[in-house]
Amino acid sequence: MSGPAQRRITIKEVAEAAGVGVATVSRVLSGGSASPETREKVFAAAARLDYRPSALGRNLRRQRTGGVGLLVPDITDSFYARLADGVLSCARSYGEPVTIGVTGDDPEREAELIGALIEQSMDRLIAVPSGDGDMWAPALRAGLNVVFADRRVRTDVPSVVPDDRAGVLTAVEYLAGLGHRRIAFLARHGQSQRVTAFLDATASLGLPVDRDLVVHARASRDSAYAAAAGLLQNHSDVTAVLAGGNVLGEAAVLAARELDVRVPRDVSLIMFDDVPWAELCSPPLTVIAQPAQDIGYRAAELVLRQGRRPPTVTLPTRLVVRASCGPRVAPRRSS
Amino acid sequence: MSGPAQRRITIKEVAEAAGVGVATVSRVLSGGSASPETREKVFAAAARLDYRPSALGRNLRRQRTGGVGLLVPDITDSFYARLADGVLSCARSYGEPVTIGVTGDDPEREAELIGALIEQSMDRLIAVPSGDGDMWAPALRAGLNVVFADRRVRTDVPSVVPDDRAGVLTAVEYLAGLGHRRIAFLARHGQSQRVTAFLDATASLGLPVDRDLVVHARASRDSAYAAAAGLLQNHSDVTAVLAGGNVLGEAAVLAARELDVRVPRDVSLIMFDDVPWAELCSPPLTVIAQPAQDIGYRAAELVLRQGRRPPTVTLPTRLVVRASCGPRVAPRRSS
DNA sequence: ACCACTCATGGAAACGATTCCATCATGATT
DNA sequence: AATCATGATGGAATCGTTTCCATGAGTGGT
Lengths: 335, 335
Prior knowledge:
The structure is a homodimer. By secondary structure, chain A is of the alpha/beta class.
């Protein structure tokens, strides 16, 4: 049942109960100066009436909304969920509510959500941007305080990102060290940072550089599976695969199993992002762990802290060796 | 860099630009009646100035905030992430923003978050409640419009829950059908519904009812692992385990592997909640799938739709047979 | 004794929207 | 032709808070 919706008590009633003016109540409650006895009276009245200041009134007057917005492509993806958890954890310590929206990696939906947040007078936003940087111009002009997380698409917006370059290099070096020469990269659209890092890494290690070895997929599970299956079927010469994220890794494992490709005997597999199931998988997956939670936390710190904001924070990745990579034996026979 | 924070345009400026009064602008923009030419002028002016009504002003006047609050124990848990996704998906179609908070299954933190939401004048809340129902009395008295998801702790609050009773019964029947007689239930604290359903199910199937076969854990991974390991070590007579949720199932798989208990040869394992990795696991896990997303969606519908609200919606679960359950062979030898 | 200065205090304006109500014009009915 | 009903329209009040400014009291210095 919805109750009788008892009216909330306002600052005016507190003022009356305390026998002072509303201005004084406001001042005392926000830590301004007042005489000790007045403070006492106000606090007593406020406590007695269980007064809760209305954020609406405050924000309207102050011309800024307390909370922070958070835009992620998919809250169901463990990586973004952990990122969101970091944001929430930091925001909680500041006492700020966070309003979340899922973009589905669709720039159009993203723009809609930004509009909705502006309508709410949110002036602080943490986003995993979907499209390219151009579409952010209007939002920035509107005075929105933006921090990018996980991806950096504009240099004039503070960003917190994993060290893609080092992560990719570590993975490729590890595979090369095991003797692999034809290594494929299973990438999600928009991972241009990692793609160039991958091409640079293979080149710098003297491996053959072949753009065909970079396979792209959209963010959905279906698209990832199709890309993974296509890769394993059409490139029988690759002996190692680097997956650019956990859903791509999942798709690779599934596709390999379906196509009867043994991991790591037939092909070695290494995945970006450490997820709980990586250890449960058979074989347990070797991964490049990303500090998803830290990324969120740091991004929230950046957007909540008032001070100067460094242009970009890069957080280290870490190679976690499990059992999905082995020495190169022989190229698989052609299909 | 933060721009010059260009001031947002107000309804007053639109009125001036259109040559009409503010009341007329408000009326036109919210679909009220007006003469065709006035409508035209107002729409033109609003579009030209790119006018966005301030939700703050509107909500202050209307005495209610548009958005809905969402309280989950842990956004990192796939189940709650999918539930949240359902809520977000429904809320998006209503154009309502969602403010999310994680309770960590801690009633105290939950109470804090409720307070924060009330401060924001949120009057609609979807919650996976942490403690018992008593602590919700103040919130309900404050006129909050609450819908419970996943757990029902009060009969006077509409709730959307999975069919625990049927799910547990299906699982136990399945295991009993394979010949298992001593079945353990690995439960999270607070899953009293499922525990009683479990005891009822075992009793109704003529299996020995033994409260020691119900092992409790807190929500954390560590606690779950400890409980799972303890169960497998101390009860060498159990031949099948039902895990009450995905983190418990994960812990069971890990503990079994660590203790060299083979699944399903030594013990059969069945888990509540179907997660993507259940299929990647070795062996692939047989699960009781729960419609997490639907639960969230339906809960959001309930809280957003104005009409009468049914007391409880129960959503069906589904047995997905994979490879983690086998026929009972022989009790494991005592440790 | 007077002035200058500090300090606590409360009234009132402001924030941006909605909505009540009065006003006015127009068309219809008697 | 006078009256009534209808509908469009804008002024002003309102929501709950913060903050500017004026007022008045008290203090210390010359």
